[in-house]
Amino acid sequence: MDKILSVKGLSSGYKNLKVLHNIDMDVERGSITAIIGPNGHGKSTLLKAISGLLPTLSGEILFDGAAVPASAPDRARIGLVLVPQGDQLFSSMTVEENLMMGSFSRKNARAIRQTLHEVYDLFPRLLERRQQRANSLSGGERRMVGIGRGMMADGQMMMIDEPSLGLAPLIIEQIYDALGHLAGGQKSILVVEENPSRVAKVASAFHLMDGGDFAWNGSAEELANSGDILKTYLGG
């Protein structure tokens, strides 16, 4: 299979606290890969380390076959895009202004407008709200803006941290339908979720994180047949 991302022996953390311990993981091009597990065990830390927001203490990260650059902005420029947990929008700016901020490293105005149309096609609600300030949006609309802003970077891979956090079931379904559509269009997605049932319908590979390392890896089918693992680590 064609790997877009390969993580080998990665250790990372915060100042004197090592959180990740020798992580090995591959993400196939055009796939959705899920990192699941209880809170506080390193899932978000892994995304931050891959994106360059946290240092690599040991190991290596290869993106599209080459070592990633050192800085987070340079990793975003080569197509490794992070959609962080929570809203993190510019509250006083409009929906469209927030979306356009995602295209900061792009130069082709026509291509940028084309991507903006793709965002609006995927999230029609944002087209209706495009002139509203971000602080007037609902939680689900804000999450759509965050994902749309990630799309505007036109990266090969999007890393999305807890896209369903705090949302109603219907909105969660809409968000994951959108992620499935993106992967079908050959975008690669690495998504963090606490609850595997939310991502099981679209992800092809799962990694269960516990204590800064992977306690289990497998396919969606293997996950469905691993009731003991889910009960042990996730309570059900």
Would you give an account of this structure?
Helix 3 packs parallel to helix 6 (139-152) and helix 4 runs antiparallel to helix 6. This protein folds into two domains: 1-79 and 156-236, 3-Layer(aba) Sandwich (Rossmann fold), CATH 3.40.50; 89-154, no CATH class. It is of the alpha/beta class. The chain has helices spanning 43-51, 72-77, 95-101, 109-122, 124-128, 139-152, 169-184, 220-224, 227-234; strands spanning 3-14, 17-28, 32-36, 56-63, 66-67, 80-83, 157-161, 188-193, 205-210, 213-219. Strand 1 (3-14) and strand 2 form a beta hairpin. It contains nine helices and ten strands. The strands form two sheets. The protein has a six-stranded mixed beta sheet, sandwiched between helices. The protein has a four-stranded antiparallel beta sheet with strand order 2-1-4-5, with helices on one face.
Roughly what fraction of the amino acids lie in strands? 25-35%
The major pleated sheet works out as:
6 strands, mixed
Mean pLDDT: 91
Top CATH class of the largest domain: Alpha Beta
From the spread of the alpha carbons, the general shape counts as: globular
| CATH homologous superfamily assignment of the largest domain | P-loop containing nucleotide triphosphate hydrolases
Q: Can you name the CATH architecture of the largest domain?
A: 3-Layer(aba) Sandwich
Strand order of the largest sheet: 6-7-8-3-9-10
Number of strands: 10
Number of helices: 9
Q: Provide the gyration radius in Å.
A: 17 Å
Order of helices and strands: EEEHEEHEHHHHEHEEEHH
Number of domains: 2
The CATH topology of the largest domain is given as Rossmann fold
> Could you name the ranges where pLDDT drops below 50 across 5 or more consecutive residues?
none
